[in-house]
């Protein structure tokens, strides 16, 4: 157990020290505080008792009193040291639990117990406390080692330590499970102040003033209200709010549907249900009454209009301001009537976009010759709608309709939206030309933002001059200085107006005009299509899906489908380089509560989604996956599992040949893997996998992981998770399951939530049958049942697909399991590596024939070989060698050297498009202080053990991987700090410090990760033979060379060069020919990247 002891016998733990200022070993704590002649540990004591005292961590459960340890020390000295033989161990435990209940504080020991309403005397013959679950935390105290501890220290001291201390038991890998004390997940807010106390104050842990000061300041201090502020607050009655927290729901622009008139033609502008549209096209729209204008004004600027009925709308503030607002609303309505949205769209949006710019025609890999097939993107339109009789783009006679679906560029979308804005919002309405230009610049940023990027009201108000809005003034001709109260009211009115423009006008306008989505190639980039083009391109494929994949339901079947336990699913499609991928949205709330006997926690309180209902089934399938791993063949359940088989293959080949021989690589993919699975066969596969003799139980627990970096300020990561087991495993303690959970972890803390869900095998199988055989899609107003395949987008679809093709592999591909060969399969992507050309060709022939009993056929367009071989009478695609003559074979984000089996990241694929498409910044708060955390996470994504293992890989390959990782990650920095952000000297220093800390953290994290994996294998070899100086040299050079292309970062580059000289005082690195060759080679790889 890697615990760092100090002179005062306190220790440090990466996770626990984030919550507690002092940690002790239980034996040391008792020896220090119990000062008498009695020995707590004796030579002949059982090993379990010695391990309990030597490896258990304890700390103060109550953090409110800093000197609590001194108080406990005095109480322990006063305790009697002899035990009371008249009371059993269980009676003592019941006394402790009853006393804990009286304190009113949460405690792990009393979790899972039921207490009587009447406080009766405790007697072993009359149980006073009822355990709701077998073997909860308090049951561990009945073990022999705890009985012996009670006998050594006495009943009073035994009660005291269990009531006053938080105790953590070891479970391996420096991980612990909490036995007693306030649940550590309840102290989550304390995680920030402990680390700041130890790192920033520079004082010892025994500094009372430092700890108490940090305790008081663990949360951001709010500004106190002055008398003037209090007076204003009472007078204005305006609720203050943080503009940073007012988020614009930009995610609503995605996956919209076109609106059509009764003749089936697409309508443009706002939807007909929008309040502005309805107001403009009322019967008496030329003479709107004040009541009608007030109703609409209530939705635009709610701060000046309170809640009320139609005849009695309550107004707030001055009536003259309300008159100005109504005048602005009247002008807004009049301007909206005059806009011809269709004509504006025609003039602004032209089909001149190169589809390659959004990835529609991109090849699968740059080293593979392009396919000749024509990709067409698809979607599910409303089958009841009709195609518009007029083409969208005016064409002359003889012009051919474009065969490809081309996206609308961001520039064209911005041109259209800005044209609408300038027709609708005049400079007089917004106060000035400056405000109009500022608003349109925010519109451009809104349109070009990537998916999941937040946009808040604070950012949209930047540059807006509030005092320029004339209709917001009580007296437009009064230019005198205004009061604080008046300024606040004006600000709030403008805030409401700007929020309405983006949330209630721009979002419906975009959604109603364009079909907006992401694609499989552009990832986070927002892609726009006109609804008409989208419909025309997808209608033929929709008809094909109806014939081959779906069965239409009648009215009766549709009604019962909506009442089913999993409801119905909405469907959307993701454009792919060749075709589309239908994604079933199972995140829709389900009103039905009949879930076939599977208890769902909280279902009666709130509606749940299909994926939430399937969570218990997912845990059961995950449990069976781990139990039957040997029978699942070459299945990989994550890209992290790819390196292990390759590593074993290289070791076998070296053992067989003494070197890596000539190898043959084959990569194949099942065509439409999810949509061609035979449902009956899938049910049989799952039924054989489930336990036939036992039911299941799902246990809930909390997992706390150590801080990721210094940027977290000591805050650990808290996750609430669940784990499924079969009934015969429940009799064991949760500690046994915690040891299994802790095997792949390090420095973690696990807390049993003592919550159990019983799920029978029959209920699990019945829910799976409904999910697989009765998956209902809603397309428009019609309902369809999927007759072939399983739904994509389900929580369990990947597991089901892996199980299905594992069964197929065991039946038809068992010949691949020979020495010198290795088959890998990630869901439906097969990779076969062998030293036998005959086996390679046999694998190609077998896969090419297909598997009719499983409905599986190989996608010939995705087949890739490292040797010449015919597939279906044609030569298969062969990977081309690189400029250096080496062949790097791509597979699931990795590049595998066909001669050495060295592993690299698939950087050519990452460099096909702009690097900004590969990530999204999901928070815009505190970007300076959180930069180190963000940058460290980006580095960690490619800080894989496959790239850093120096036993498997050549050292030059590892060095090249390090350089490329930092180079690719550094390309994201210009997008993290926007072009209009000012980087002063103070921020430059902060960025440089963050980069240096991230480099050091990445080096140590990679080392710890590799050592942990190899320690589990009892491998004594040094798999991380990387010098820290070389690591820093490569990382800093990569960052400097990338940022050197951006003049904005000149100051940062100079500081990094200075740090490079200070970090590497030995000039040998600059003269090292091998290191410079790696930098040159790495730069040649990434120099043409777009960033």
From TrEMBL:
This is Telomerase reverse transcriptase. GO terms for molecular function: metal ion binding; telomerase activity; telomerase RNA binding; telomeric DNA binding. Gene3D superfamilies: 1.10.132.70, 1.10.357.90, 3.30.70.2630. It is found in: Nucleus; Chromosome, Telomere. Residues 555-896 form the Reverse transcriptase domain. Residues 197-233 are annotated as: Disordered. Telomerase is a ribonucleoprotein enzyme essential for the replication of chromosome termini in most eukaryotes. It elongates telomeres. It is a reverse transcriptase that adds simple sequence repeats to chromosome ends by copying a template sequence within the RNA component of the enzyme. Belongs to the reverse transcriptase family. Telomerase subfamily. GO terms for biological process: telomere maintenance via telomerase. It catalyses: DNA(n) + a 2'-deoxyribonucleoside 5'-triphosphate = DNA(n+1) + diphosphate.
């Amino acid at each position: 157990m890697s615990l760092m002891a100090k002179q005062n016998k306190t220790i440090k733990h990466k996770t626990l020290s984030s919550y507690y200022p002092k940690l002790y070993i239980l034996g040391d704590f008792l020896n220090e505080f119990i000062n008498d002649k009695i020995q707590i540990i004796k030579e002949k004591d059982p090993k379990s008792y010695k391990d309990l005292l030597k490896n258990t961590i304890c700390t103060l459960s109550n953090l409110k009193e800093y000197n609590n340890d001194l108080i406990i020390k005095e109480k322990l000295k006063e305790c009697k040291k002899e035990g009371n033989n008249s009371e059993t161990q269980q009676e003592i435990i019941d006394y402790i639990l009853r006393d804990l209940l009286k304190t009113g504080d949460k405690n792990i020991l009393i979790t899972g117990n039921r207490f009587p309403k009447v406080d009766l005397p405790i007697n072993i013959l009359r149980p006073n406390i009822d355990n709701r679950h077998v073997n909860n935390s308090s049951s561990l105290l009945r073990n022999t080692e705890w009985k012996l501890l009670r006998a050594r220290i006495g009943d009073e001291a035994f009660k005291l330590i269990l009531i006053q201390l938080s105790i953590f038991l070891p479970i391996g890998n420096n991980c612990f499970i909490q036995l007693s004390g306030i649940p550590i997940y309840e102290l989550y807010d304390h995680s920030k102040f402990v680390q700041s106390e130890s790192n920033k104050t520079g004082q010892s842990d025994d500094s009372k003033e430092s700890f108490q000061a940090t305790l008081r300041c663990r949360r951001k201090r709010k500004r106190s209200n002055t008398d003037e502020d209090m007076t204003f607050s009472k007078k204005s009655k305006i609720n203050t709010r943080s503009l940073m927290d007012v988020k614009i729901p930009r995610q609503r622009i995605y996956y919209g549907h076109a609106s059509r008139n009764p003749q089936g033609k697409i309508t443009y502008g706002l939807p007909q249900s929008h309040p502005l549209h309805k107001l403009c096209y009322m019967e008496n729209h030329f003479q709107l009454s004040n009541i009608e204008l007030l109703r609409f004004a209530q939705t635009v600027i709610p701060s000046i209009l309170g809640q009320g009925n139609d005849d009695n709308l309550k107004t707030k503030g001055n009536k003259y301001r309300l008159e100005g607002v109504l005048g602005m609303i009247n002008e807004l309505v009049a301007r909206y009537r005059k806009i011809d949205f269709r004509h504006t769209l025609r003039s602004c949006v032209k089909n001149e976009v190169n589809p390659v710019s959004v990835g529609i025609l991109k090849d699968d890999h740059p080293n593979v010759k392009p396919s000749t097939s024509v990709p067409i993107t698809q979607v599910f339109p409303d089958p009841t709608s009709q195609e518009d009789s007029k083409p969208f783009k005016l064409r002359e006679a003889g012009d051919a309709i474009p065969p490809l679906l081309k996206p609308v560029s961001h520039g064209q979308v911005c041109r259209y939206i800005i044209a609408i804005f300038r027709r609708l919002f005049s400079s007089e309405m917004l106060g000035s030309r400056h405000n109009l230009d500022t608003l349109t610049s925010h519109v451009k940023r809104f349109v070009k933002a990537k998916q999941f990027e937040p946009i808040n009201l604070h950012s949209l108000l930047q540059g807006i001059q509030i005092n320029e809005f004339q209709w917001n003034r009580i007296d437009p001709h009064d230019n005198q200085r205004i009061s604080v109260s008046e300024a606040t009211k004006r600000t709030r009115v403008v805030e409401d107006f700007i929020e309405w423009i983006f949330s209630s006008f721009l979002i419906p306008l975009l959604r109603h005009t364009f079909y907006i989505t992401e694609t499989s190639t552009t990832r986070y980039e927002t892609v726009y299509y006109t609804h008409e083009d989208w419909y025309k391109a997808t209608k033929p494929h929709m008809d094909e899906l109806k014939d081959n994949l779906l069965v239409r339901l009648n009215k009766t079947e549709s009604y019962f489908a909506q009442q089913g336990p999993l409801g119905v699913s909405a469907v959307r499609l993701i454009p792919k380089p060749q075709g589309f991928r239908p994604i079933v949205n199972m995140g829709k709330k389900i009103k039905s509560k009949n879930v076939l006997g599977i208890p769902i926690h909280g279902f009666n309180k709130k509606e749940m989604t299909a994926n939430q209902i399937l969570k218990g089934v997912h845990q059961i399938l995950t449990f069976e996956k781990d139990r039957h791993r040997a029978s699942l063949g070459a299945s990989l359940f994550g890209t992290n599992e790819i390196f292990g088989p390759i590593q074993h293959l290289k070791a076998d080949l070296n053992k067989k040949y003494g070197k890596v021989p000539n190898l043959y690589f084959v990569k194949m993919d099942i065509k439409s893997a999810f949509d061609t699975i035979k449902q009956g066969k899938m049910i049989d596969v799952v039924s054989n996998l489930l336990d036939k003799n036992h039911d299941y139980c799902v246990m809930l627990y909390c997992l706390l992981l150590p801080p990721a970096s210094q940027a977290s300020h000591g805050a650990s990561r808290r996750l609430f998770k669940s784990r499924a087991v079969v009934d015969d495993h429940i009799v064991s303690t949760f500690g046994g399951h915690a040891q299994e959970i802790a095997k792949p972890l390090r420095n973690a803390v696990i807390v049993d939530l003592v919550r159990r869900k019983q799920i029978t095998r029959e209920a699990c199988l019945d829910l799976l049958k409904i999910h697989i055989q009765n998956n209902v899609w809603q397309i428009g107003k019609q309902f369809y049942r999927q007759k072939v395949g399983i739904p994509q987008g389900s929580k369990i679809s990947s597991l089901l697909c892996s199980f299905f093709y594992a069964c197929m592999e065991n039946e038809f591909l068992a010949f691949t399991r020979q020495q010198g060969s290795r088959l890998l399969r990630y869901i439906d992507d097969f990779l076969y590596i062998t030293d036998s050309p005959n086996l390679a060709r046999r694998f190609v022939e077998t896969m090419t024939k297909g598997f009719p009993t499983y409905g599986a056929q190989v996608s010939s367009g995705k087949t890739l070989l490292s040797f010449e071989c015919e597939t279906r009478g044609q030569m298969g695609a062969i990977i081309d060698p690189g400029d250096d003559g080496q062949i790097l074979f791509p597979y699931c984000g990795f590049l595998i050297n066909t001669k050495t089996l060295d592993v690299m990241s698939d950087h050519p694929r990452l460099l096909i498009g702009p690097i900004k498409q590969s990530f999204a910044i999901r928070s815009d708060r505190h970007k300076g202080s959180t930069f180190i955390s963000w940058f460290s996470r980006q580095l960690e994504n490619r800080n894989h053990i496959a790239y850093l293992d120096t036993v498997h890989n050549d050292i030059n390959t590892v060095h090249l991987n390090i350089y490329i990782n930092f180079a690719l990650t550094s390309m994201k920095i210009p997008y993290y700090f926007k072009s209009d952000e000012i980087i002063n000297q103070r921020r430059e220093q902060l960025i440089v410090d963050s980069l240096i800390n991230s480099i050091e953290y990445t080096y140590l994290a990679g080392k710890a990760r590799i050592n942990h994996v190899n320690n589990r294998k009892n491998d004594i070899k040094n798999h991380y033979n990387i010098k820290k100086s070389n690591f820093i040299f490569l990382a800093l050079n990569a960052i400097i060379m990338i940022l050197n292309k951006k003049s904005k970062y000149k100051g940062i580059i100079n500081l990094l060069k200075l740090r490079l000289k200070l970090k590497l005082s030995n000039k040998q690195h600059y003269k090292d020919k091998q290191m410079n060759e790696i930098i040159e080679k790495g730069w040649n790889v990434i120099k043409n990247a777009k960033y």
